[in-house]
Amino acid sequence: MPEGPEIKRIADSLDAVLTGNYIDEIKFSFPHLKRYETLLSSRKVTSVATRGKAILTAFDNGWNLFTHNQLYGRWLITTPEEIPITNRKLRVSLKAGNHIALLYSASTIEVLHDTDLQNNCFLSSLGPEVLSGEISAGTIVKRLQSKKFRNRRISNLLIDQKFVAGIGTYLCAEILFFARLHPGTKPSKCNNHQLWSLASQILKLTRRSYVTGGITNPPYLVKRLQKKGKTLREEHRFSVYRRASERCYVCSSRIYRSNVGGRPMFHCPCCQAQG
Ligand SMILES: [Zn+2]
pLDDT tens-digit profile of 145-179? Predict the structure, then answer.
C-alpha cells in the first residue's frame, strides 16, 4: 500500500491541476454518490490535501471529496483525449479545463460536508500528519511517552495511524534501523536519547522519502551503492526493507526478516540489538 510520502506526491499532482480551477464535470460510478455530481460540478476546488493515507479534495461550497486508495486504488491525471483503455474500474473522474483526474479501483470514496469532517471516524482518529510541517520532534517524543502509547511494541505503534499519520511498512522498518532500535522494543524501555532519535528519524526519513520518491537511504550511501553497480532503484533504495539475508551497510551482519502481525519486518540483529 502506498505510504504517506507516495500519497502526498499524488495529492501534489492533483493539487497542481485542480486547485483554483472550476470542475467542468465530476462523475461517480457508485450509485449512492451520483446525487453529488450536480452539487460538485461547476464548483471551484480550493485545496487538495492528505489526511494520513487518504486524500481530501475541498470545494468552494463546503463539500469535500474523501478518497482512500487502500491497496488497489490508482489516480491518473491525463487529458480527456488520452484516457487509457484499461480493465481497471473507474470510480471517479474530475474534469477541469484541459485535465482530467481519474481514480481507478478505490473502494473508499465519500462526499463529506465541512461540518461532517470532525465526526468522520477515520479522519477524527488520525494522529498528527508527519508530512504536515506542523509536527515537531518534541510533539512526537511526548506522544511516545504518553500512557496511551508508551507500552506498545514499537513496530506496531509506528504504523498505527492514530499515533502519527503517514507511516507504513517500509518506512517503519527503515526508521527503526536509522534510530538503531529493535522492532520489538517499547517506548517505555527506551531512554531519552533513543526517544529523541526515533522522533527525529520519523520526521527525517518520511520527508526524505517524499522528496526522493521513496528512497530512504541517505544520498551519500545511494551514490556509493550506485558506484558499486547497484544502479537499479530497488538496489539502492533501502537499508533493511526487502533486504533479508543481505549484508548490513553499517556492520555487515545479515539482515533478518520477521513477521509482525502478518506484515514483514526487517532489521539488523547487530545494529538494532534488543536492549
Ligand atoms: Zn548492522
Answer: 999 999 999 999 999 999 999 999 999 999 999 99
- Dihedral angle sign, alpha carbons of residues 72, 3, 49, 61: positive
User: Any idea what DSSP says for residue 69?
Assistant: -
Q: pLDDT by residue (tens digit) across 113-154?
A: 999 998 888 899 999 999 988 899 999 999 999 999 999 999
CA pair distance 248, 251, nearest whole angstrom: 6
Cα 198 to middle of ligand 1, angstroms: 17
What DSSP state is assigned to residue 199?
H
User: How many of the other CB atoms lie within 10 Å of CB of 103?
Assistant: 25
Rounded to two decimals, the pTM is 0.92
**Residue matched to cell numbers 473522474:** 93
Structural domains counted in the chain: 2
The enclosing domain of 137 has a CATH number of 1.10.8.50
Instruction: Tell how far the Cα of 252 is from the centroid of ligand 1, in angstroms.
Output: 6
73 and 113 in a common domain: yes
* CATH at 9: 3.20.190.10
How many A from CA of 1 to the centre of ligand 1? 27
Dist. CA 273 → ligand 1 center (Å): 9
Q: Catalytic residues, which ones?
A: 2-3, 53, 263
**Do 79 and 180 have their domain in common?**
no
